[in-house]
Amino acid sequence: MQKLATNLPDKPGVYIFRGSGRAVLYIGKATSLRSRVASYFRGDLIATRGPILVGMVESAKSVDFIETDSVLEALILEAHLIKKHQPVYNTKEKDNKSFNYVVITKEDFPRVLVVRGRELETLLSTTNYQIQTTFGPFPQGSVLREALAIVRKIFPFRDKCKPNSGKPCFNAQIGLCPGVCAGTVSKTEYAKTIRRIKMFFEGKKKTLVSGLTREMKTYAKNLKFEEAGRIKRMIFALNHIQDVALIKASHRPRLGEGGFRIEAYDVAHISGTNVVGVMVVLEDNEPKKSDYRKFKIKTSTNDDNASLREILERRFNHTEWPMPKLIVVDGGKAQVNTAEKALKEWGIQIPVVGVVKDEHHKPKGFIGGRLIPAQDANLLIRNRDRQILLANSEAHRFAIGFHRQLRGKIK
């Protein structure tokens, strides 16, 4: 199979790993089918993609692929095939509640929204929302939002504005809403836009383009040249999808690439009750709050090391998340050993630093690959050490906040 990868096209598309009896094991999208599939056969697979997909590759017997005209279409096809086949390694790789969906609401002027799996369950159970259609699951929320931004430039839609409110919303002013708010588009005309969006997310681009072409010719025949020109621009946009932003979003930094990413972990509880853990992220000296994560501990009560291991295991099951270049844990030798032992078992090579605290829970030094006393105040403002302390402080703050939030709900 490794040789097969070199024969794949250097084009966007979807690849399908199959096991015994042609069973679908894993489905993924690619900017370049050749380079993406080849990456599964490199020696650093565990470090770059995680231990779960190593098992998938070992079980695979063949790889199929479907070439697409754009990365955007590969993204949509990937979601359609994941929903159809429910591949075992896609669901292992990520909790279904963490997947993302495109939701079209059931209204006179439907909204088009991106909704996470856990939020979708809430929407479906509330009477305030009626949902017409959902598309997904999409594994990566950031990539999906980039994709929807591209679709919106071709087919402007409503997401937040109030219909017929009398004045155009900001998106209407920049051409991303057709004027639902200002009353400049009819219910019938807007319904056409929603039908086109649905066809595109159903993977029916060729049918969509054929229908638009017929519509354009009808307008031209009836001397409605302005309308014919508008449809012609849609057709051109569909046939020349500009998804550079989507390509960039698909290439999230992996270990050894991109900016310097630190992940810091902490555990919070009171005498083993309401045990929670968190992960916070710093990239190039700045907190990246969109990547912060919360964990309710399931397997331990009053054992911080066991809780830390559970958090790390759950984190590294998310192979779609960027890999860090440094891990920071709150504590001394025991915590560092726990993290290093777990990473070694999974074949992941990432340095671990523990932040050692004094009796007042103030940092007094680092332990791990090195031990640096922190009595010298100047040391605390040097770049890398400052990042470690900031990451640790953020993790502690975030963990305490989550713990208090959970306690408040239980009360």
Automatic annotation (TrEMBL):
GO molecular function: excinuclease ABC activity
Domain UvrC family homology region profile: 261-343
Top-rank lineage group of the source organism: Bacteria
GO CC terms of this entry: excinuclease repair complex
Residue span(s) of domain GIY-YIG: 10-91
SUPFAM superfamilies: C-terminal UvrC-binding domain of UvrB (SSF46600), GIY-YIG endonuclease (SSF82771)
Cited InterPro entries: GIY-YIG_endonuc (IPR000305), GIY-YIG_endonuc_sf (IPR035901), GIY-YIG_UvrC_Cho (IPR047296), UVR_dom (IPR001943), UVR_dom_sf (IPR036876), UvrABC_protein_C (IPR050066), UvrC_RNase_H_dom (IPR001162), UvrC_RNase_H_dom_sf (IPR038476)
Domain UVR, first and last residues per copy: 206-241
Coiled coil: none
PROSITE patterns: GIY_YIG, UVR, UVRC
GO biological process, one term: nucleotide-excision repair
Name assigned to this protein: Excinuclease ABC, C subunit
Native source species: Candidatus Nomurabacteria bacterium GW2011_GWB1_44_12
